[in-house]
């Protein structure tokens, strides 16, 4: 079933079903000059000029003609010219089509969820690093011969901190991406869409660089282990 969007005072509303528009039109709450759009239409059009809706407003006009003259004389409402509407159709390039916004909004909860989970992981690893550091300091102060163990413990602390940083940046980029999607859903501006795409690009760029670094490290370790094994034979 098609979902319809309509413009009220220059602001986009919807989506709503065709049956809802029909009910509003029957109750006199939806004018035939109201601009509407659905997926598949190249531009926004008055509701009375859209084939799916023309029959609704045609029936209303016939009822108006059949009514007594005394009841038909109604002060006409002022309709602002189309040029004064602030909202522009998808073809102008200044706004974003409802389908794009809907697709991004549907992904926002999942993006936000992963961002929160990553931040929680950062907090857990930071707490673990602090506990390790306190343990290393306590062990080093209580044992005179624990220099080697303390060094290994300190190395473990450094590794935990570095790992938490690797989780922090993806969490930050995902959180920024979710916030930009929220801005886009409110403003529907092209600039906010570009900001959302920039945030997404930063996330995947970081993941790509990190993946390459991990692959290089694994390759180096593989070569070292292979070389050490060949020397034994």
Automatic annotation (TrEMBL):
Domain of life of the source: Bacteria
Keyword Aminoacyl-tRNA synthetase: no
Entry protein name: DUF4339 domain-containing protein
Residue intervals of the GYF domain: 1-54
Keyword Cell membrane: no
Keyword set, alphabetical order: Membrane, Transmembrane, Transmembrane helix
Spans traversing the lipid bilayer: 113-137, 149-169, 206-228
Record organism: Humisphaera borealis
């Amino acid at each position: 079933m098609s979902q319809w969007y309509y413009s009220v005072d220059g602001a986009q509303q919807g989506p709503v079903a065709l049956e809802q528009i029909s009910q509003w039109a029957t109750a006199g709450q939806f004018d035939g000059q109201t601009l509407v759009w659905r997926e598949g239409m190249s531009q926004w059009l008055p509701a009375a000029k859209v084939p799916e809706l023309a029959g609704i407003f045609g029936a209303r006009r016939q009822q108006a003609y059949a009514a007594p003259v005394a009841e038909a004389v109604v002060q006409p409402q002022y309709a602002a010219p189309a040029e004064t509407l602030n909202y522009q159709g998808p073809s102008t390039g200044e706004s974003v089509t409802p389908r794009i916004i809907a697709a991004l909004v549907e992904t926002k909860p999942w993006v936000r969820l992963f961002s929160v989970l990553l931040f929680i992981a950062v907090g857990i690893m930071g707490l673990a690093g602090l506990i390790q550091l306190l343990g290393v300091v306590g062990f080093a102060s209580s044992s005179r011969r624990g220099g080697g163990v303390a060094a290994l413990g300190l190395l473990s602390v450094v590794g935990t901190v570095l790992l938490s940083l690797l989780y922090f940046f993806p969490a930050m980029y995902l959180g920024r991406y979710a916030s930009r999607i929220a801005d886009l859903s409110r403003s529907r501006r092209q600039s906010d869409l570009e900001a959302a795409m920039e945030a997404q690009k930063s996330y995947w760029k970081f993941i790509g660089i990190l993946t390459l670094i991990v692959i290089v490290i694994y390759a180096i370790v593989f070569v070292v282990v292979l070389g050490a094994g060949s020397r034994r034979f």
